[in-house]
Queue: 2 jobs
Job 1
Amino acid sequence: MALSRALLARLKEIVGPVYVLTRPEDVVVYEQDAFLVAHALPDIVVLPGSAAEVAGVVRAAHEANVPLVVRGAGTGLNGGSIPIAGGVMLVLTRMNRILEIDPRNRLAVVEPGVVNADLTAAAARHGLFYAPDPGSQSVSTIGGNVGNNAGGPHCLSYGVTGNHVLAMEIALASGGMTWVGGRSVDPPGYDLCGVMVGSEGTLAVVTAVVVRLLRKAEAARTLLAAFETIDDASQTVSEIIAAGIVPTAMEMMDGVVMAAVEAAIHAGYPADAGAVLLIEVEGLPDSLPRQMERIETICRAHTPRMLRTAASEQERLLLWKGRKEGAGALGRLAPSYYLHDGVVPRTRLPEVMRKVVEIGKAHHLRIGNLFHAGDGNLHPIILFNPREPGIMDKVVRAGEEILHACVEAGGTITGEHGVGIEKREYMRWMFSDADLLAMQRVKRAFDPSGVMNPGKLLPLGTRPDVTIKPVMTAGMWT
Amino acid sequence: MNRDKLIRELRAVVGDEYVLVEKEDVIVYEQDGSIMQAMPEIVVLPGSAEEVAAVVRAAKQANVPIVPRGSGTGLAGGAVPAEGGVVISLARMNRILELDLRNRLAVVEPGVINQDVTKAVAADGFFYAPDPSSQAACSIGGNIANNSGGPHTLAYGVTTNHVLGVEVVLDDGRVVWLGGQVPDCAGYDLCGAFVGSEGTVGIVTKAVLHLMRSRESVRTLLAIFDRMDAATQTVVDITAAGIVPAALEMMDRLTIEAVETGAPVGYPRDADAVLLVELEGVREFTERGAREVHEICMHHGARQVRVAQDDAERLRLWKGRKGAFGALGTLAPNYYVQDGVVPRSRLPEIMRQIATISARYHLRIANVFHAGDGNLHPNILFDMRTPGELDKVIAAGEDILRACVAVGGSITGEHGIGLEKKAYIGLLFSDADLNAMAKVRKAFDPDGRFNPAKMFPTPITCAEMRRAPAKIPAGLWI
């Protein structure tokens, strides 16, 4: 896309010439996020330093009728920050200040570029923490988390990003800034703050966020339960939830992933077991032993090979290390992988997990599983070698079949990674034309000229217009 | 419009007996729980989503206002047909369609009474959390429109936190699903935007509700204070100590006087404030929490702290709180219940301000409210027969709301905006903020036919609406 000199000059004036990148060797860094099967070059990359600058850039793009794509740390898994139509990319990483921490009212005000883990580190001084903990939390930004309504292992009891954002300041496509939500919970009027969370940059650009902070639990206990089969582990999850127990986290790792993790991290998992569950409960020290006992009783009914409660904080962290860094270890199994994200009602977990295994077999693909079992949030990881001819088609088809199985079981096409370009056509499996039209109405209300992150979230009726380029890469997160 | 033609069409849709047009029939629908009135021209009682859709299409074609109504217990005039037109009463659509306890959800029609949901699942150990004081009469559809809260909102959140999806009839008669049966559906969170939209976006015809597991143990304490300041400080300290009670309610001296005159429960008449604290959860939490709350109360010089020893005593402690509104009738012929929110840390200060406002206007104000949420309910006592008194009451109410906003709070905690507060919404939102909301309104209801003259700051059209009735309705709830 040829961009006018006038736009370029205007952008330089708004943010300063050093923060406007146009040379191919500079902008190439921004052609991709963690959706590893697609990429596209932005024409201009802009790094604003303040809300006012963001508003200026948004207005300029709108007036020039040029696509505008927002990007945080680029850890998104759905291709949401890939500029498939070119245009201006707005990178918010310079806006990384924590503006306020108010411990008495348990909230923090942050700029969108603040890294998730940095916020929790700052809140820890007051005995508080920020609950949503995506696997990428040491790099991903609050703005990106908000855009994708990110989740994480502890969302089982604490909820996802949408449950922890009280308000935000946004820059609108039509120019101008506005606040949505409020510092007190559930302000009157339409819940536009809720609409913005998970809107993937298609409506407006967030410039400041008010988030809720939670009090740290007094004590935590972590149990590792190993099972002979995925089926036994899935049944256990289903029964724990049915018994009315809500652990803070209940994660599953299957034998495929475990073998890789154990070789890399030595967290003490039984490498030849069919599946392990990592179950954590939090609360008052007095109440934990009894809760753990109930969980162990349910586990025992499914012939576990081993039940081990972490005896020390060190052992607890090591068990978690295996989970949190698990995805990084997958490189030992195959040169590349495609990480999926689907949700099923927890009662259907055993059945859908069997289906995932079948789909893998049918396509002669190895699939590993490392996921938030307590939420019914699956992360099947399709392992493959990109040099094998025709492999990409098979991988994409297998992924599609898995998501279809999730939807058929009453679930959804994404638990926490979002829709982006990756899943926009699958939206039709969940929503009728009328439902999608309702979303279109909101999109048009906020972005009448369609410049905000075009080609994302809502189906176009065609395959994404992107180069499919499988790559090998280390850091992926779940 | 051709009224007769519309009536004919509506009769064809829902049947003759469910279209009311005679004055003596429609007058029942001129008012809700607020002090405003206006007559509908036609009242329709559809029996299914298809009928609602057909009614909406017919009304749109005739270009008349459409006002949805549940049980009419709303306190902000949301169901008052301010511009006449068609009132759609959803009272006939009162079936619980599905109970799925393993996935903890219920699918209900909008006319289902709040309490009936809990009744249907209580035997299995579940409950529906939002518990507005009107729960024996108000409907789920009305709760959704107003994003209702209740005493136990402190721990469990308001209606929006318990609605997973809604089926909605839009302005063109299209039936769409917003959200779904799993939380945090892909796409824009339009279910969240719909909850609290007060009938201005569409009409809900089905709702998927989240059910919670009944708590293992409940403990209730009643603390009596000689000074309001000590009571509010106690609330602040309970929160700061990291204890989240299921409910934390306060009553002031005037309310105590009313309770002891109307329905005595044995509160000392010379006390300045009573706190009712309820803890729910595992036994270990409620026991320790009760102990800690007891200590904090004593630390602030509570005259007495009673801990309920059994269920019968627990209900006795609640009796004063639940009967407080009815008892206010012993103090004055009329009262106007306000609804504001402040950050909890500002509670002591705002209560002092309310006392000042009361003195300034020579109006008695009784306070009975959800202190733990910082959600105030000042009841301004007055006599409608005194000329000019209502003006004073409205002015005092406005001063209170201004004071709430000035300390960082909001103009409504759970009653909504409706007609009552649309003039004040500007205190909370800038023009740009309201404009963002108007975009959504316009996207869904371009002709402004859905519940016109509500929520947005339009001038009040009928002068008599503001101070209509010669009497205040009997049953008011908060």
Note: The CA atoms of residues 29 and 123 of chain A lie 32 Å apart.
Job 2
Amino acid sequence: MSTVDAGAAAGFADPGVPVIAPEAQRTMVRYTFGERVIHWWVGLTFVALMVSGFALGYPRAYFLSGLFGGGQTMRFLHPWIGVAFTLGILAMVIVWVKDMKLTADDKDWVGRLRSYTRRGHTGIDTGRYNAGQKGYFWYVVVFGLVLFLTGLPIWGGALGGAAMIHHVARFLHHAAFLLMVGGFIIHVYMSTVMFPGTMSAMTSGRVTRAWAAWHHPRWFREEEHRRAGAPR
Amino acid sequence: MSTELGLAIRRKSATPASATGIRRDTVEIAKLVDIDLCIGCKACEVACKEWNNLPAETTSNFGSYQSHEDLTASTWDLMRFNEVDLDNGDLAWLIRKDSCLHCDDPGCLAACPAPGAIVQYTNGIVNFDQTKCIGCQYCVSGCPFDIPRFDQKTKKVYKCTLCVDRVSASLEPACVKSCPTGAIKFGGKKEMVEVALGKVDKLKGRGFDHAMLYDPSGVGGLHMMYVVPRGDRLEDYGLPKDPQVPGTFFSALSVLRKLGSISVWGGLLATGIFWLRTGRRRPPAEDEAVAEAMRLGEEYGRRPDGDLPPPATEPAGYGVAGGPAANGGPAGHGDGGEEER
């Protein structure tokens, strides 16, 4: 069994916390190849949209348009990347919706948010996703679709529409953009810095058993049970 | 089209702090279209095409003396032939020269996200620089007069330049030069306003009680004004009664932008501080983590596959300090029982 743990290997060990050599840790599958493709499809299109969005929305950030071959090319690309992003969002819903249904445990998790941010553990029997992850999933789906719908009237041409619709759409597009950027910062921080061992789930697709048992105990037991071949 | 020849710039689109502001008031120029004197000969249209080297377009008869149905990316000046039935049964031909009005407070410039694509000179001319235009057409929705036209081939937006190249060389605009009746006048803005008000008085003397100067304040005034004989029928000329820069929208967007800059930079800073303050949250060793997962399964009364909801009645044999009943509900239990990392 291959063992990869990008987070633990990144060398950010806190003093006083023993770090087990990644090679010595046993791992298990967290994400299939298809799931990782969808994640990075959405992630990379989002980053492209965010960077070009800053260039379009903030004159001081206009220099970023150079990354896309100049203003006019960027303005042409942005809506089409948006279409690709939206398709990724829809794929995400199809693949993950069954894991993202909210349960009674999620309410308890929100009540223990403090414990989660401070200690990184809630003592709740969390399944494949905790309430925070589910919340971010739906946040991205909702505001991703808002961005798509408000993007249509400002795409221009036949989709142009009346001036007032254009203005309102432009305002809402900017507001939803800022909300997405905020969520994105938190998402990246949590999955790389805050919780070591998380990043490998989206690179190699594997996490350590310790990570799985600690953060997603119910999912861990399910996977163990499934692997043991016991009847469900 | 995209020249900055010898003219001082007042402001540029999407260019923070572009207003230089140190100069004293410079002379602002203006065109004045005296609709009373216009005979609808379209010489100005031709002169505009000729001077600006704009290609001719195939036109068709759509039941009007008007040459083109609408302004296009290569037709920047159009005589609109508005036929109107008056209250006394007479027919009136309200012919209006339609082209960019060069607002003093241009909605197009405020809407534009491409730095320098729209320029306003200190003399009042508003000009598009197509080399910097990105083709987003935000100016089209920002314009209260429906003037800018998008070209599908070049993917850029065009409009009247007020012959900025001629004006910067001390020449009058081509349309003014060609007008055989002197209906289009050109000069300093103040001078043109005086001429216009004199003409309005004359028209009133002739019975045009509603004659007026069209120089609306909602767009900061115009650098192409009209003397309108029938001021009570502005809509029939195709002139909005109270045109506005979409100011509420632009100030709302500007507030959102400031809020955005503050929260993005603030958010990054807060995240950094949070990191330094709280560090990382590493899972414990595998044995300990797995033991905790098993303990939780027992506490929640899960079946071995973990998939099932807890039974309705409390299962026996929890044996966990703190107990499940503390907070009520199937998942409730005190924080005190948690393992710390």
Note: The radius of gyration of chain A is 20 Å.
